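Exercise (ungraded).
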Amino acid sequence: MINLQDMRDTARNMLAKNEVRGVIGYRRSTNGMLAEPVVITKPEQADELIWDPTCFHNLSLYLVEDRKFLAHTRAKADLPIAIIAKGCDARSTVVLMQENYFERKDVYIIGVSCEGTGVLDERKLVKKGIRATNSAFDGDDFVFTTEQGEQRIPAREVMADRCLECRECFPKEHNIVLGEDKTGRQLDAPFTALKRFEELDPAARWEFWDHQFERCIRCFACRSVCPMCYCDECIVDSTSFPVTGQTTADEKANRVKWIERSATRAENMTYHMTRVLHLAGRCIDCNECERVCPVNIPLRLLNNKMEREAREQFGYEPGASIGGPSLTASFLDTDPGKFIR
Amino acid sequence: MSEQQAEVTTDYEPRIVAFLCKWCSSAGSDLAGVSRIQYPSNATPITVPCTGSISPNYILSALKKGADGVLVSGCHIGDCHYIEGNFLARRKIHLVKELLGFVGIEQDRFRMSWVSAAEGAKYSQVIKDFVEDLRPLGPQTKVKAGRS
């Protein structure tokens, strides 16, 4: 059980001693039950921090935002920034460091172990018809405060899918850690949802994805929320291509556009496949893309597929070590090659 | 409807986009030409510096623009001009192939082969086999852009 007071004290002390320039954490949002990300920079703000089942955001996104902000304002940061990181957040922070997006000394990781439970999937709660104003961890249950009183629900029933299949709920890379290491805990075998989907025959799979890609509205929410999608120029989005005073209209019109911006099925499909391939070996299954999708496209299946290929065919585990090679920039003599004629 | 379809399939010639590496497969296709080896003219060769330089976007883009099949061909393992380019390609192409299969695109539409500069005959065989495998699949409409 994580003592919230410990988390607040840690943040307060570090800010008071001027060890970090800010702490990225969660606070209560204006939207009732849900938590929202916050960056606190003053010791007295530490009491805003919370830790409950609605802390599902991947905060490493804000390390990227912080880095971009520093680069754009040409500011210098002498102190590291602290982040409250769950097992998955810590892994994605490791991937960012592996890619030299920032250095280990630039970030202070306050690890929080997810222990016996994961985090909430809000959609599952809504399906159950519960309108809560508050939530809390309690052993293997989540306790929700509703207007009718307290309601105790086994975490398993409303937990996010990724947490059910999580292999590593303990943040291995950390400066300090709160909570116990319960890495052995696994409610579902990894890739359960993926295996269930793969039992379908190719025609049925196509029918499914055809429908999903047709629905995509190309709002780029999945890209915006992904800590790994940090490129300033994005190949899928021609509006992000650089424009200077010297860029002529001709040049703008004739730039290679691998993917058009129109939200047709073919373009959506190439967009999602490109994104999945760019995330191969980098995606650590925080599933933020699926959570923010306004039309509920099950993007996790695609990302999981790549993760499993990397794991089973190449023995690669994303977010395992800062110094290790990346998936597509390394190779083994034993890589599968039977498909090549 | 069925009559129309029958008509389409009889006239149907698969269009292949072939990404050939500059050092081996491209020279291999040249050799097939100068040796006067007969093979179907369905493949449009595109020379790239190395199979390792092939971005998945090339493949997706080819399919999106209406290619019925995409071939990626390069030097045999160990013969890469850039020492390790084809090792990297092998990994990347494996992921692309798996992903295409996963969303339900026929696995036969995408193929990779190793063809050295001395294997003109093998290149012609690869194209022949590919065309024969593509013919029963019919035109590729899944990724192809267009008003649906």
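Further reading is listed at the end of the chapter. For now, observe: Residues 164 and 187 of chain A are 5 Å apart (CA to CA). Chain A touches chain B at residues 198, 202-210, 235, 258-260, 264-267, 269-270, 273-274, 276-277, 280, 302, 305-306, 309-310, 313-314, 327-329, 331, 333, 335-337, 339-341 (CB under 8 Å).
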